[in-house]
Amino acid sequence: MNDPTAGRHARRGLNRRAFLAAAGLTAAGAAIATTAQGWAGAKKAAGTFRVPVEDVRHTRTWMAWPDRTAIWGGDLSGVQANIALIARTIAKYEPVIMCANSDSADKARSMCGSTVTVIDSIPVDDCWMRDTGPVFRTDGAGGLDTVGLSFNGWGDKQAHAKDALVAERIASYVEVPFTRADFVGEGGAIEQDGAGTLMATRSSLVNKNRNPGMSESQLETAMCDAYGASKVIWFDGVYGQDITDDHVDATSRFLAPGKALVQMPLASDNDAYAKDARRQHQILSASTTGTGSAMTVEKLQGADYTKIRSTNKGFLAAYANYYVCNGAVISAHFGDKAADEAAKATLARLYPDRVIEQLDIDSLGTGGGGIHCVTQQQPVA
């Protein structure tokens, strides 16, 4: 998520991925996202299914291997090394399946090592599994199914003929029912607390590049139906300044039902993303959950962009874009030593029973995304 953003929350302009339309982006390719039928006839699952909060026990983590120079440029070594590092780290705690194209699967196996399972039966365009992968749901009684969010390349900004089919193909691979949601979106655009409450930015979803003609009320109904929720907490977000139109998972996250976290900017930051983050904190602090409970909101201090390692203007330094797996929280460090240490301490306090792993993923950050953006959890049924 996330994301293949170009400067999303990075304050200093857009990078090379901002308005990329890679070769192969056609109307036919985009149409794949809305016409495919799901496993088991795409029959809708019962309303008792819902997307659980992310810290439940996982069966495995799903990831995708980047290999397209049309998207990442001629040197793929940095982003591939980052993806391999994330996969190997998660694999210390739970199984990881990496989807790779057949002509790059051997390289993925070599870089990821024996602890990561690489398959070449689910082809991909890019590495953003949070957005392209299926959203898994459970029913609390041993049932598991999936929902696809009709991925369309973040509003037809990038080629996605393969990625549009990833969600359905993963559902088929694990042999669980698949349905397609009644709206277009991405996993990084929606956060869920597992107990009926969602949060999202209008900029990512109430947007003609995803859902033309749909009102906010109609979207809310479709989102709640897909996620098994009853309420959406909306933030305005930031339109048109990055490829995702400001995904929520780089700024605000659910920790548990009634408990959320917001990454806060420096007091001196006053760009659109900083204003958006402060407003997200204000809205969450005044919100209630789908069951009417008050919301507790924690703060996670962001880095000083003048002190991080990267000088790329589109770099995303999102501590909040962490991934919770079995027994660990996989996060990032960016070179602002004080902020890195403070973020790790905050996460350790919020997840006291998990190991906090901080990784250098600067190449991925240069692409505008983070660890949550490239992972998708499959919860235990």
List strands and helices in order, with pairings:
Layout: H1 27-35, E1 58-64, H2 69-72, H3 77-91, E2 96-99, H4 105-112, E3 117-119, H5 129-132, E4 135-138, E5 144-148, H6 153-156, H7 166-173, E6 178-180, E7 190-192, E8 197-201, H8 202-205, H9 216-227, E9 231-235, E10 252-256, E11 259-264, H10 272-285, E12 296-301, E13 323-325, E14 328-332, H11 337-350, E15 355-359, H12 362-366, E16 376-379
Parallel strand pairs: 1-2, 2-3, 5-6, 8-9, 11-12, 14-15
Antiparallel strand pairs: 1-16, 4-5, 7-8, 10-11, 13-14
* Average pLDDT, all residues: 90
Structure annotation, total helices: 12
Task: Tell me about the largest β-sheet.
Answer: 4 strands, mixed
The run of helices and strands is HEHHEHEHEEHHEEEHHEEEHEEEHEHE
The CATH topology, please?
L-arginine/glycine Amidinotransferase, Chain A
Widest sheet: strand ordering? 3-2-1-16
**Which second-level CATH architecture applies?**
5-stranded Propeller
Termini separation comes to 25 Å
Low-confidence spans: pLDDT under 50, at least 5 residues?
A: 1-46
Helical proportion? 25-40%
Shape: globular
Sheet-strand content, in percent, reads: 15-25%
What's the level 1 CATH class?
Answer: Alpha Beta
CATH superfamily: L-arginine/glycine Amidinotransferase, Chain A
